[in-house]
Amino acid sequence: MRFIFKTDYEDDIRLFPHSGYVWTYGTLLVLLAIAPFVLSSYIMSQLVFVCIYATVGVGLLILSGFTGQASLGHAAFLAIGAYTAAYLQQYDVPFLVYFLASGLLTGVIGALVGFPALRLQGIYLVIATISFAFIVEEILARWESVTHGNEGMRVKTLSMFGVVVPRDSPGFYFLCLGFLILIIIGTLNLLRSPTGRAFIAIRDSETAARSMGVNVALYKVKAFAISAAITGFAGALFAHKLTFISPEMFTLLLSIEFIIVILIGGTFSLHGAVLGAIFLVMIDPFLTYLKDDMPGIIAGSASALGAGKETASNIQSNVAAFASANGLKGAIYGFIIMVFVLFEPLGLYGRWLKIKLFFQLFPLYKRATFKRQKIYVKSERNR
User: Fold this and answer.
1) Is residue 193 in a domain?
2) For 316-323, what is the mean pLDDT?
């Protein structure tokens, strides 16, 4: 077991608390660097989606996990970034220019969304962000001169410094991975800054933060702007990965998937965004398998149990209709959310911390170590 003694402020804010982190993350980077040369194209494609979803997860963590502002409208921010990149690309704008424009424009719109949401909390803020997502989806469908409406837009192959980078090439994977690492390092530095500490203070108690001189309204708008900007950057990469975008791709279900990323991974650490993205992206092939094969399996089971052919056929048709309407995917997502909220509220990263602490303290580990303490201060009564 390792004991870390902090003797100055530099020890408290350093990126790596001890040398073990350097070796661990260094080994991980080496494995990620050689992955394109040893893994199949399908797995590499999934890893690219993991990088993009993890980037969105980091942005959502800044808003929801560290500032305490709920949002179900991040699919709209992703759409704004994707459409900005696709639109500017039509005029032969260089990649770096429209990539930066995607993030900056989305960040400005995120700040504008943050202003009317200042007086909203809880379920009312969720409703406001859902309304914003519906408005953006409708604008994308109606503004045909810019977005081509429901016909969608083709996205050309990425070209940077005169070099073409196809979506399935190792270069595109390294681009997405490098940007994810950059965003994670930037977010870690943000959280160690006065701005990040203000975010956390607002999450813990707005009343206490306001009494300590924190401009709550300003930092809430900052959180919306930063979170939206990161999601806009991910939207540009998302558009290049799919090569085609349309309004039907940025629905409320996609926003729910982003919530699942941080909920399953863990809402208190950046590790949770990566772990949640891995879980969500890798479970999608399993859901596709259920959607395609479950009707026949259930019908065969019903027939084996003695049901008639007509009954088995009816069961198969009903399950197939349920699955084809995306009801199966939504139902499984809802079940996963309930399981994690009830039995593992700290997410996958929280479970990993419990396992690691168990082996560190064995045989003195106590289950009550991670039990949440209900502590209320008098200032909370005014909220």
Assistant:
1) yes
2) 49
